[in-house]
Design brief:
The protein has about 400 residues and is α/β, with parallel strands linked by helices. It has helices spanning about 15-30, 50-60, 70-80, 100-110, 125-135, 150-155, 165-180, 210-225, 245-250, 290-310, 320-325, 340-350, 350-370, 385-405; strands at about 185-190, 230, 255-265, 275-280, 315-320, 330-340. Helix 10 (about 290-310) packs antiparallel against helix 13.
Length: about 400
């Protein structure tokens, strides 16, 4: 389980906490036994070998690969030592059980046709409800406890869902049934940092927290014009809290989608461009722990941003960062440039670039909901064009509905 207090271990630290990290890295195969720590836990040192092992683990698990063991990295690392059946699992409202065994349980439930929610390795209320539904279906007491009896029931059943990931199919079907219109939807915009945390700083006196909030306001104006309800995780006067706090807020809003806005920075100052991120394990594309709608929006958004701004395409990536992992709805993070790169800073200092990015967000979001009806080329669809296109689609639907009602009945 995730420890209640923040864990921050880095190169140069030593002691029993480092020894515990090394033991887990050995179990995951990222650290050789000989490269661990001496028999005395007090003498365990977080050296270069341990740092590289942490980075390797973070990279494989879709975490920020910085070699620092913070609370998120420790939670995933600690959970990686469990396989399904190693321990009894149950829902604890005050503190979710977390681990690879929970992810395996969720994937098994999905295969059998039950709905544990996102396969995120966190034993929350949706997973508990799915476990109880499964237990009731196989004649067990629906107490939500995954112990020996429930495990034996799992082993005796074959998967009932075939032809791809059930969660992916459900995500697509949910989008299809919701219709193509943006009107009436709720989008959570998450301007990165804030509350005394300015984030990155760069040329032209640009500050990440201020830039993200400026962009969020431009996006809000355009989405509101399309009838979208927009909610911010923070303002200039409020603090959005941790990524987990922001995810919980988005869940409380029952939002349709979350978009987190950030800029990036590099130590060399040579990196530049835009990138997007969605929920998924980099080593497991196409599996249950993969948001297909998030991936679609991330891909469309990046292509629209690049086409409109000229920023370098740094690709779309699957990650398991807390905001992407903890939200019940699809969530995407957009990093729109490097503030320490002269070219990116010059572009972002121009309000017109931010307008282009805001327009890209609206168009990309609309293209997600258009689905198969989306025939536009990237970067050419403008907001006025979008309105006319939607009006045409509504007229066609109305005409088709009217034609159907005029047919003679037998």
């Amino acid at each position: 389980m995730t420890p209640p207090q923040p864990v921050v271990l880095r190169r140069g630290d030593y002691g029993p906490a480092v020894a515990a990290v090394c033991e887990r890295l050995v179990l995951t195969g990222d650290l050789e036994t000989a490269a661990g720590h001496p028999g005395d836990p007090d003498a365990a040192v977080f050296d270069e070998r341990v740092e590289q092992a942490v980075k390797s683990f973070q990279q494989r698990r879709g975490l920020i690969s910085d070699g620092v063991v913070g609370a998120s990295t420790y939670a995933v690392l600690d959970g990686a030592r469990w396989t399904l059946g190693d321990r009894v699992l149950r829902y604890l409202p005050e503190h979710y059980v977390e681990g690879d065994d929970v992810a395996a349980l969720q994937a098994r439930l999905v295969e059998l046709g039950f709905r544990p929610g996102k396969v995120d390795g966190m034993h929350g209320p949706a997973t508990d409800a799915a476990v109880r539904a499964f237990q009731g279906a196989v004649g067990l007491v629906p107490d939500g406890t995954v112990g020996p009896e429930t495990m034996r029931a799992f082993q005796g059943l074959r998967r009932s869902v075939s032809g791809g990931s059930a969660n992916a199919l459900r995500e697509r079907e949910r989008i299809r049934r919701s219709g193509f219109s943006l009107s009436g939807r709720t989008i959570v915009l998450d301007p990165g940092h804030g509350g005394g945390d300015d984030g990155a700083r760069g040329g032209r006196d640009l500050v990440e927290a201020q830039l993200a909030l400026d962009l969020a306001r431009r996006i809000e104006g355009r989405l509101s014009a399309h009838g979208v309800g927009v909610v911010f995780t923070r303002t200039e006067a409020t603090d959005g809290g941790s990524d987990e706090d922001r995810a919980a807020f988005a869940n409380s809003c029952d939002a349709d989608l979350v978009l987190s806005l950030h800029t990036d920075h590099s130590t060399s100052g040579a990196a530049h461009g835009a990138a997007t991120y969605f929920y998924g394990h980099p080593d497991a594309p196409g599996q249950h722990d993969w948001s297909v709608v998030g991936e679609s929006f991330a891909d469309l958004l990046l292509r629209e941003v690049v086409a409109r701004t000229g920023l370098t395409d740094c690709r779309s990536h699957a990650r398991t960062w807390p905001l992407l992992r903890h939200t019940r709805m699809p969530a995407v993070r957009l990093d729109f440039g490097y503030l320490d790169h002269e070219g990116d800073a010059d572009a972002l200092a121009d309000g017109q670039t931010l307008d282009h990015v805001a327009e890209a967000v609206v168009v990309a979001l609309q293209r997600v909901y258009l689905g198969e009806a989306d025939t536009a080329r990237t970067g050419v669809l403008r907001l006025d064009d979008l309105r006319r296109h939607l009006e045409t689609m509504r007229a066609q639907q109305a005409q088709a509905s009217g034609a159907g009602s005029d047919r003679p009945t037998g």
